Inverse folding.
């Protein structure tokens, strides 16, 4: 395998798919940040940075933090961004973002685990 082929293969990006609930969660994040900051530019930057953090995982999604319940891997990984956690699963060549939750929530219950 040539060096170029190895680099291309190792930089494969997973298809990023947001669930309907994750999209609603992003709307909730927007509302919370807007209410707190009272500044549209700050709110938009916060959401852009959050989505950039999630998108960055699409190249190597297994480098996210695996979520365990007791001793058992739940199938979820998460990426933390400031006060929020984005929970995703990997299926074939897709990174499925299921929820984006405030870090202090009972995320195990919210994920239905």
């Amino acid at each position: 395998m040539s060096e170029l082929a190895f680099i291309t293969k190792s930089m494969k990006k997973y298809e990023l798919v947001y669930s309907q609930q994750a999209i609603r969660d992003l709307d909730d994040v927007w509302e919370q940040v807007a209410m707190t900051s009272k500044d549209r530019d700050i709110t938009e930057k916060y959401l852009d940075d959050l989505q950039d953090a999630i998108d960055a995982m699409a190249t190597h999604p297994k480098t996210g933090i695996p979520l365990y319940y007791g001793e058992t891997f739940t199938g979820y990984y998460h990426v933390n961004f400031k006060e929020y956690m984005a929970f995703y699963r990997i299926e074939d060549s897709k990174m499925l973002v299921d929820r984006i939750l405030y870090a202090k929530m009972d995320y195990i219950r919210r994920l239905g685990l």
